[in-house]
Design a protein that fits this description.
Blueprint lengths: L1 H20 L9 H7 L2 H22 L3 H24 L7 H7 L1 H13 L8 H10 L18 H23 L4 H25 L53 H10 L27 H11 L8 E5 L3 E5 L7 E3 L7 E5 L2 E17 L2 E17 L2 E7 L5 E5 L2 E6 L8 E5 L2 E8 L6 E5 L4 E6 L2 E6 L6
Parallel strand pairs: 2-4, 3-5, 4-5, 5-6, 6-7, 6-8, 7-9, 8-10, 9-11
Antiparallel strand pairs: 1-2, 11-12, 13-14
Helix pairs in contact: 3-4, 3-9, 4-6, 4-7, 6-7, 7-8, 8-9
Length: about 475
C-alpha cells in the first residue's frame, strides 16, 4: 500500500510540474483538462478500472465469443462514464433537456448491450442479461437531488446490482461444476460493482455529481421546425434507461366489470339495446336443434374450453394494502419499490417475467405462474408458491416460512439470513434449494424429496423421506 501511494504521489507531482512549466501538459491536453484529469476522483476511477476492470476483462478473454463482446461493451460504458465525469467538472449544471443530451453517449452503449439479449435466445443469455441489467447502476450520474425520482447514488448502485444478480447467480449455478472460467467471470462482474463502483461513489460522490459553478454553460441543440414539404420526422425511439415508460392514467381507461354495470343502471335506460325474443327463436320451437351432439361439436366445445380468458396485465396497489401483479408476460424489469411491512404481494398468471420487491412486505403469494422469477428482501409472514410451473424465488433477507404447493419445478435461493426458514412442500416435484456455501459467493444445491415411505410401527405410522443416491 505504501509503495502504491508513493507512486501516485510521484505521478501527481510530475503532472503539477508539467503544468507549471508550460501551457500544455505532456499529454497534449489544455491546462483545464489536464487539471481535471489529475483530480483525485478521476485518478480513483482509473484505479477502479485497473483493479476490477482488468480482472473482468481477463476472465472474459478466457471464454471469448459473445461473453467477450458484451464485456468490451461494459468496459466501454465505464470509459464513457469517466469522460462524463471529466465533463461535469468543466460544465455548469444543465436543465432536464440538457441532461438527457449529456447522458446520450452512455445511453447508446447501454442500448447496444440490451440489443444483444433480443432476438433468438443465446446459449449465454444469462451472461448477456446480467451484464445488461448491471449497466443501470451507471445511471447514478444522473442524480440531481431528492426530487429527481431516483435513489441516492450509493443505494442506486446497490439496487441496480440486485436486479442483475438474479441472472448472475444463474451463471454461477450453471457453470460451477462445468467451467470455472465462467464462474470467475460472474464473480468479477459482481466485484466491478460491489465493492468497486459502490465504494468509488461512496468516497467521491455520495450526494451525486458536483457540477462546476464557474464552468462553461451546457450546449443544448434547439428544436428547428422542418422546412415546408419535408417529410415528417420518424417516431421516437423505444424507452431507454433514463426515460421510463409512461403509464396511462386510470381515468382515461373505459370502465369494465361491475363499474360498467352500475354506470348503465345509473343512466336510467337499462333496457336500451335489448332484443325481443319471438316464438320461433325459443329453443323448444327450433327445428335445427336436436338432442344428439355430433363428434365435431364435441371437439369444438372441448378445444374452446381449453383456452382460458386472460385478463389485462396489472401492477398496482389495491386499497393501500395489497400489491396485485397479474397477467404479465415477457416483462423482465417489474419492480415494486414503494412498499411496507403491512402490505402483501399477490402474483397471478404471470409468464416468463421477473419481479423485484425492494423492501419488507407482510406476505408474498405466487399463484398459477409459469417460468416466473421473484426476488425479494424480507417477508414478515410467509412466501407461498401455489399451482406454478418452473418458478425461481430468491430471498435476499429473511423469511420465516416458505411453502410450495401443487408446483412442478421450483428453485429457491436462500440468503444467510433466511437459512432458518421453515420450508413446507405438498403435491410438488423438482424442488431445489440453493444456499450460500462460502465467502466467494458459491451456491450449494439441495433437492427436497418428493417421495415418502410410511411404515406402521408401535401403533402408529412413521413417515420418512426416500433417500436418493445423489443426496
Amino acid at each position: 500500500m505504501e509503495a502504491k501511494l508513493v507512486e501516485r504521489l510521484e505521478a501527481t507531482v510530475a503532472r503539477l510540474e508539467a503544468l507549471s512549466a508550460g501551457g500544455i501538459s505532456a499529454s497534449g491536453l489544455p491546462d483545464s483538462e489536464a487539471e481535471v484529469s489529475s483530480d483525485p476522483s478521476i485518478l480513483a476511477f482509473d484505479d477502479l478500472m485497473a483493479e476490477y476492470g482488468a480482472r473482468f476483462s481477463a476472465a472474459a478473454e478466457k471464454i471469448e465469443g459473445q461473453v467477450l463482446d458484451v464485456t468490451k461493451l461494459v468496459l466501454e460504458a465505464f470509459s464513457v462514464q469517466k469522460k462524463l465525469l471529466i465533463h461535469i467538472k468543466q460544465t455548469q449544471k444543465p436543465d432536464m433537456a440538457g441532461l438527457v443530451e449529456f447522458l446520450k453517449p452512455l445511453n447508446e452503449v447501454i442500448l447496444k448491450v440490451n440489443a444483444m439479449t433480443e432476438g433468438r435466445r443465446s446459449d449465454f443469455f444469462n451472461h448477456l442479461k446480467s451484464a445488461g441489467d448491471s449497466l443501470s447502476a451507471l445511471a447514478w450520474i444522473a442524480y440531481t437531488g431528492k426530487d429527481c425520482g431516483m435513489s441516492m447514488p450509493i443505494a442506486h448502485v446497490e439496487e441496480s446490482w440486485q436486479m442483475a444478480e438474479f441472472y448472475n447467480n444463474k451463471v454461477l449455478v450453471e457453470y460451477r461444476n462445468k467451467d470455472q472460467n465462467h464462474v470467475e467471470w460472474a464473480k468479477a462482474l459482481k466485484e466491478l460493482y460491489l465493492p468497486g463502483l459502490r465504494d468509488y461513489v461512496k468516497s467521491h460522490y455520495p450526494l451525486g455529481p458536483v457540477w462546476s459553478a464557474s464552468g462553461k454553460k451546457p450546449s443544448s441543440a434547439p428544436l428547428k421546425a422542418p422546412p415546408p414539404g419535408a417529410p415528417a420526422p420518424p417516431p421516437p425511439p423505444p424507452a431507454s434507461l433514463f426515460s421510463p415508460e409512461p403509464s396511462q392514467p386510470s381515468s382515461s381507461q373505459p370502465k369494465q366489470g361491475m363499474s360498467a354495470v352500475f354506470q348503465a343502471i345509473s343512466s336510467g335506460n337499462v333496457s336500451a339495446g335489448l332484443k325481443k325474443v319471438t316464438a320461433d327463436m325459443k329453443t323448444k320451437n327450433r327445428t335445427d336443434r336436436t338432442g344428439v351432439v355430433s363428434a365435431g361439436e364435441k371437439e369444438t366445445r372441448s378445444s374452446s374450453s381449453s383456452f382460458s380468458k386472460v385478463g389485462p396485465p396489472k401492477l398496482e396497489l389495491q386499497m393501500g394494502r395489497k400489491w396485485a401483479v397479474e397477467n404479465q408476460t415477457g416483462r423482465k424489469n417489474l419492480v415494486i419499490d414503494d412498499c411496507d411491512a403491512k402490505q402483501s404481494v399477490y402474483i397471478y398468471g404471470c409468464k416468463d417475467s421477473v419481479l423485484q420487491i425492494q423492501g419488507k412486505v407482510n406476505n408474498i403469494t405466487i399463484d398459477k405462474c409459469n417460468k416466473m422469477g421473484v426476488v425479494f428482501k424480507d417477508v414478515v409472514a410467509a412466501c407461498e408458491v401455489v399451482n406454478c410451473n418452473g418458478v425461481e424465488v430468491q430471498c435476499q433477507g429473511s423469511a420465516p416460512t416458505i411453502s410450495v404447493d401443487n408446483t412442478s419445478g421450483c428453485q429457491l435461493y436462500l440468503s444467510k439470513d433466511s437459512l432458518g426458514a421453515s420450508i413446507t412442500t405438498a403435491k410438488s416435484s423438482e424442488i431445489n434449494v440453493l444456499v450460500p456455501t462460502g465467502p466467494d459467493g458459491d451456491w450449494g444445491e439441495h433437492s427436497l424429496p418428493q417421495q415418502c415411505i410410511h411404515v406402521f410401527k408401535d401403533g402408529q405410522f412413521e413417515t420418512t423421506p426416500v433417500s436418493h443416491s445423489g443426496a
